[in-house]
Protein: N-acetyltransferase domain-containing protein
Organism: Pyrodictium delaneyi
Amino acid sequence: MFRLVAGIEEAGLEDAIARLLNRVESLRYPVYREPWTRERIRRQWLSYSGYSPENLVTVITDTSVPVAIAWIYPIQGCGVVWVRIDPLIALTTATKVLEELLSYARLLFDTRGAARGVPVRVHVEPLGLVRDALYRVIPGAVAREGGALMAYKGSGVQPVLPPGYRIESRSSIAGDRGLLARIVQLVNAAFARYSWYTPSTLRDYTNYINYVEEHYRPLYLLVWSPSGELAGYLLAYIHPNLAGGISGYIEELAVHPYHQRRGLGSSLVAEATRRLHHETRYVYLNSVRGLEGFYQMLGFTVAERKAYYEADVHVLPQRNVVVM
Ligand SMILES: CC(C)(COP(=O)(O)OP(=O)(O)OC[C@H]1O[C@@H](n2cnc3c(N)ncnc32)[C@H](O)[C@@H]1OP(=O)(O)O)[C@@H](O)C(=O)NCCC(=O)NCCS
């Protein structure tokens, strides 16, 4: 009844996956939605050096329409299974599909030597249907809250930079290898506090910035310390094509641990929001869990909460799956 296809080499598959993902995401918060295209799929999966075809599987029905897609990859101390299932299928079908995908994930984690007891995070969408299917397949899955999509509503506090620090804005950094290397170092140092974070390499980050500059109108803000160090970094862009029209999106924010809690992070967000809001109706960002209050102080509200489910790798169903 189902066929699991690894990678995206099969003819026409990228477009079919893009259609599936757009259908799933049309159920989300009505304004923020970046359409999936072939190029976005390639950026998301192929441009990262950790990509390997077997990490990406599509479940296809006998009518050759994809009904689900999963991206399976390890992060520090945890395996991730990112699943999107067609919202139009029935619960019994969704349960079978999820069973196939999770058995496959288990096989992959097992063959790669995942240690006993490693938690598996299953990020599922659409939440209602897939959550019910997930509980049928893994009754022991535990729901956890992820971060949140935040939308700017206005009237946040006006932070001030400490003396001697200054913000520089740029519209392109793609050719500046020296600066890119400093940014990668800064971002890795700032995000090291999160157990789920995998450090970026200069190569991956450069690919990513090239993509951003080809497709959006970026805004980079850099905070320089009194002694000329790069202390803070923010990447935002104007997106021409989010549902709801032209929108501003704050993609990345990092302050070097040595310079934190001095008002740099909030000054960066306030400055970016002021500039983006001047040109667009909506400004969005995705907050990690626990920082929602920081963004609320700056005038954002929670538009959509994210959830994921955690389970032990040995709770995943064990069956023989055939992958094509
Ligand atoms: C989040 C981050 C950018 C904040 O930068 P910062 O320069 O330290 O922030 P500010 O000094 O402007 O903080 C202002 C206020 O925000 C709140 N705040 C700052 N960091 C916070 C955190 N990690 N958790 C909760 N509240 C926080 C505090 O109320 C703080 O005021 P206080 O220092 O008087 O208590 C920085 O901690 C960082 O780089 N973190 C790692 C990367 C990251 O999480 N990026 C954001 C992803 S969405």
Notes: The two ends are 14 Å apart (CA to CA). The CA atoms of residues 12 and 100 lie 22 Å apart. The domain at 2-146+307-315 is CATH 3.40.630.30 (Aminopeptidase).
